[in-house]
Amino acid sequence: MKFYLLLTSIAILGMSGCTSPSQHLNTPAKKRAIVTMHYENPTPQKLALYQQTMRTVASGIKDDSRYQRIALDTPEKKEWFKRLTYRLWDRQMTRYQFMTEGLAKYPSRRYEFQFVINGFAKVCG
Fold first, then answer.
1. Confidence band for 13, pLDDT divided at 50, 70 and 90
2. Helix (H, G, I), strand (E, B), or coil: what is residue 36?
3. What Cα–Cα distance (Å) separates residue 103 from each residue in 81, 93, 111, 112?
4. Where are the alpha helices (DSSP H) in the chain?
5. Does the pLDDT of residue 74 top 60, yes or no?
6. 88-101, pLDDT tens digit by residue?
C-alpha cells in the first residue's frame, strides 16, 4: 500500500507543470530582457550631505591596514564610483546591487566595497 502511495505521489509531482530552471539558463542572451534602471541625480543639498558622508567614511581608511585603494585613475572611473556610491547612499540600490556592480568592474576589491557599505551603515544608521 505504501508503495502505491509513493508511486502516486511521484506521478503527481511529475505532472505538476514545473519547469526546469536550466531552460532559462539555456536561453540565448539576445532573447533575455535587459533591465535598465533609472537613477535620480543628486540635488545640491543631497550632494553636499553625500560628500560629507563620503569624507567621514574615507577618513576610516587610514586606520584600516587591509583596505587597498581602488584604482580610480581616470575621470570616467572616478565618476562611475561617485555615482555608484551615491546611489547606495541615497538608497536607490541595495547593498547587494552595489556589491555586484562594484565587483563586476573590480572583482578583487570585495573588502573595499564592503568597507564602503559598512561605513555608510555606521554613519547613516
1. very low
2. coil
3. 12, 15, 10, 10
4. 2-14, 21-25, 44-59, 75-89, 95-105, 110-124
5. yes
6. 999 999 999 999 99
